[in-house]
Amino acid sequence: MVSGIERPLDLLNQSKGKEVLVQLKGEKQFVGTLLAFDIHINVVLDNAKEMQDGEMKKSIGLTFLRGDTIIFISPASTSRNK
Amino acid sequence: MVSGIERPLDLLNQSKGKEVLVQLKGEKQFVGTLLAFDIHINVVLDNAKEMQDGEMKKSIGLTFLRGDTIIFISPASTSRNK
Amino acid sequence: MVSGIERPLDLLNQSKGKEVLVQLKGEKQFVGTLLAFDIHINVVLDNAKEMQDGEMKKSIGLTFLRGDTIIFISPASTSRNK
Amino acid sequence: MVSGIERPLDLLNQSKGKEVLVQLKGEKQFVGTLLAFDIHINVVLDNAKEMQDGEMKKSIGLTFLRGDTIIFISPASTSRNK
Amino acid sequence: MVSGIERPLDLLNQSKGKEVLVQLKGEKQFVGTLLAFDIHINVVLDNAKEMQDGEMKKSIGLTFLRGDTIIFISPASTSRNK
Amino acid sequence: MVSGIERPLDLLNQSKGKEVLVQLKGEKQFVGTLLAFDIHINVVLDNAKEMQDGEMKKSIGLTFLRGDTIIFISPASTSRNK
Amino acid sequence: MVSGIERPLDLLNQSKGKEVLVQLKGEKQFVGTLLAFDIHINVVLDNAKEMQDGEMKKSIGLTFLRGDTIIFISPASTSRNK
Fold first, then answer.
1. CB contacts < 8 A (A, G)
2. For residue C82, is it within any domain?
3. Which string of DSSP letters, residue by residue, matches C9-66?
4. Nearest to residue A41, comparing CAs of C73, C23, G8?
5. Conformational region of residue A26, where left means phi above 0, alpha means psi within -120 to 50, and beta covers everything else
6. How large is the ipTM?
7. Which of F5, F70, F75 lies nearest to residue G36, judging by beta carbons?
8. pLDDT of C44-71, one tens digit each?
9. What is the DSSP letter of E5?
């Protein structure tokens, strides 16, 4: 069990400055360093890369992602392929 | 009849720390330990696994899921295939 | 005419503890005992079963359904195929 | 001109206890007696029947329809095929 | 230039009692006399007709249209095919 | 740089009485004189024309467009094909 | 790490007067100078160009983009193809 997560946004707070995987609707996927988020789950990633099938498709750099299109956000360190 | 469920969120509250199945729009399915949720039904799962046809497709680890994309959440212990 | 239904939620209130049919967007259908609902039409079903073409596809047990994906909810006792 | 309709909900109010046709997104259509509605356009129909191409597909009985999926509601007495 | 239209709803107000064309999402189109509207752009049409390719498909009579599905509303007198 | 645009609605305000191009979801496109708009980005166009591939498909005249379906609004004078 | 970004809108604020890449739902992409934005992520771009596969498809000039259709906004200077 992970300690210190009482509310969903606590995970995003703990992930600030760390690499996260952001899955969008419509199969788009980004990895990047989580710089900021708000209650609408708008996020800013640094060094963002658009991924496809585990490969980098495009380097986007700094980017603002609207929360509305996000399915999940996961700290990259805890994610691994089967 | 199950006791102690007066409002829908009571079920999520009872499921904290337990394994749940989360069905998303667009056929994505996750199983994991429910750590936290809020009134928007944003949830955090620990040891999350993306499932497909009852098989693990990918281990995601800790993950924040936006409520907006969720269809249903079910305690894994009560779910079984036909 | 059915008595005692002044507002739409009155029907859900009368259906508590009874079997209901829940039709979701995207052709998913559930039957189960209605335990709880709220003003967002989030519902909890007990003994939920996912149905397809009138046959049980999967037993889900206790489940939380987000109101956002629901098309209609109907007391099972009043529903019959043609 | 029809008298007594100042606001859109006035038509629904006048239609209480009468048969209405409810068109949903995704081509689903219901006819039934309008028992109740609210400002979200959630409605309860009695003796609801799911229709397809003007034929009854399924008798649903009493049913709660979420306003979110409704395209239009029309008093059945005023509707006729060309 | 048309006078007296300061806000978008002014056009709907000027169109009360007149024939309008209502374009819905998903290619449905209605013509009818605008009886009422509200800030959600819910409208009531009298003598509503569902149109397809400029031909009447079905006479619907009095009908309540949810604003959510509406793309545009146009006074019929100002609309003409090329 | 364009002066006098501090907030997005300033551009719409500057465009009143001028021809604009309105791009809707689902590939519909209108040109017309912007008469009015509100904070929901509902707009009224005069002399509206539905366009397809740069050609006029249909003259709609005065029309009310719901903001919900709008992707972008652009003063026609600043737009040109490549 | 990028300094000065505490909240997601800080990135948009820092990008005012600079070229940004705006990705919309449905694969549309624009580049242009960010003139203004609001909390709905409505934005105004100057010298906007619609892009397709990295090539300019159409010059749109000044344009108002509704936040609702935006997936991400990225300062162009930080973005590069693989």
1. 77
2. no
3. HHHHHHTTTSEEEEEEGGG-EEEEEEEEE-TT--EEEEEEEEEETTEEEEEEEEEEE-
4. G8
5. left
6. 0.88
7. F5
8. 999 999 998 778 899 999 999 999 999 9
9. -
- Written as one letter, the residue type at E2 is V
**Domains identified in chain A, total number:** 1
Domain range for E34 is 8-78
Determine whether the interchain pair D10/E36 forms a contact, defined as Cβ–Cβ distance below 8 Å.
yes
Q: What is the DSSP letter of E7?
A: S
Q: Assess contact for C81 and D59: CB atoms under 8 A.
A: yes
The secondary structure of chain F as a DSSP string is --TT-SSHHHHHHHTTTSEEEEEEGGG-EEEEEEEEE-TT--EEEEEEEEEETTEEEEEEEEEEE-GGGEEEEEEGGG-EE-
Express each pLDDT in B32-51 by its tens digit.
Answer: 999 999 999 999 999 999 99
First to last CA, chain D: 21
CB A58 within 8 A of CB G74: no
* Sequence-separated contacts (24+) of C45-48 with Cβ below 8 Å: C45/C20, C46/B1, C46/B2, C48/B74
Spell G7-39 as b/e; 16+ CB within 10 A means b.
ebbbbbeebeeebbbbbbbeebbbbbbbbbbee
> Which of B74, B81, B82 faces C62 most closely, judged by CB atoms?
B74
- Contact yes or no for A73/A21 (Cβ under 8 A): yes
Q: Which residue in D63, D66, D55 sits closest to D24, CA to CA?
A: D66
Closest CA to E70 of E36, E33, E35, E27: E27
**Any idea what the Cα angle at residue E60 is, between residues C29 and D57, rounded to 5°?**
30
Any CB–CB contact under 8 A between A37 and chain G?
yes
Place of tokens 């009485």: F17
**Helix (H/G/I), strand (E/B), else coil: A6:** coil
The two tokens of residue C34 are 């209605």
What is the reported pTM? 0.89
In a domain, C36, yes or no: yes
Nearest to D60 by CA among D52, D70, D68: D52
Residue D2 located in a structural domain: no
| Within a domain: B69 | yes
Provide the CATH number for the domain around residue A43.
2.30.30.100
Residues of B in contact with C36 (CB under 8 A): 5-8, 10-11
Q: Is pLDDT of C38 > 60?
A: yes
Q: Hunting for tokens 């006819």 — which residue is that? A: D31
Residues G77 and G33 sit within 8 Å (Cβ to Cβ): no
| Dihedral sign from CA coordinates of B13, B17, B19, B23 | positive
Q: Could you tell me the CA-to-CA distances from C59 to B80, C16, C68, F22 in Å, in that order? A: 6, 20, 22, 49
